[in-house]
# Entry
Amino acid sequence: MNYELRIMNYNCGKIAIIGGGSWATAIAKIVVSHAHHIGWYMRRDDRIEDFKRLGHNPAYLTSVRFNTDEIFFSSDINTITGAYDTLVFVTPSPYFKSHLRKLKTRLRDKFIITAIKGIVPDENLVCSEYFHQVFDVPYENLAVIGGPSHAEEVAMDRLSYLTIGCADIQKAESFAEFIASDVIKTKTSSDVIGIEYSSVLKNVYAIASGICSGLKYGDNFQAVLIANAVQEMSRFLTAVHPIERSAYDSVYLGDLLVTSYSNFSRNRTFGTMIGKGYSVKSAQIEMEMIAEGYFGTKCMKEINRHMHVNMPILDAVYNILYEHISPQIEIKLLTDSFR
# Structure
């Protein structure tokens, strides 16, 4: 059986998923439905054994069934990265470096696709920059998956729109064509850095939206908050990577809207708990899932210390989460700055 993907002029080869969470599971479902074979790295052997026995991920999106004969599982990241050509990284950003520490495979010649909506902690780099600087992967071999795409909805085959970003548009088009279907619409972009930063910022703004919801601010104010958030995002993207882009494209604004408003949004849920009076620690314990925006807020604040972009919403969320300033006081100050 030919497991390789050949579309247009670029050959993505054999595809592997790195990560075992809900978004990794949703992407695995998309890829295996077309390729009928994937490699899949998961850190824990017990999860892999349960997955094989049950026919679904035992911990995330448990309703999504897989034919495990079409999956080569391994808890050894080098086994997977060595045997596959296109590697889709979908680990939570706080654990990203710990997975890569074990890596001995040369990544330079692989096609690396990051679906990680976060920044590499301690490095304050988006994932593509980290792969480029630390693993010497050329920009034309680095891609990103973005767009409004809750894993739960993708898994339920609800219509979703994904953007594949890569400096080499032919590679982006190849992967975009491959995963496209009646329920997955795709487009391409060359704005890898912009998509990655917007994916981080929208989580921060979703926490802000949740905090305001927890404080009983209404829909009228939420609309003003998000209108200001997209302007703030646009200012930052222009400062960090000044190319021609529209912040109103679905990969930027669309992702911001769904993350800020949807009940599936962990970051909004986390923010709502903070607004209701939970401490950061107690909210994290109760959620049992990673709210990427908590880590993203600190990273973005540190990056912006050098960029000096006017980002009052980021500053407010940072002050609440890390300086322990009262959400009531901080959001009241924020409301006074909006028009």
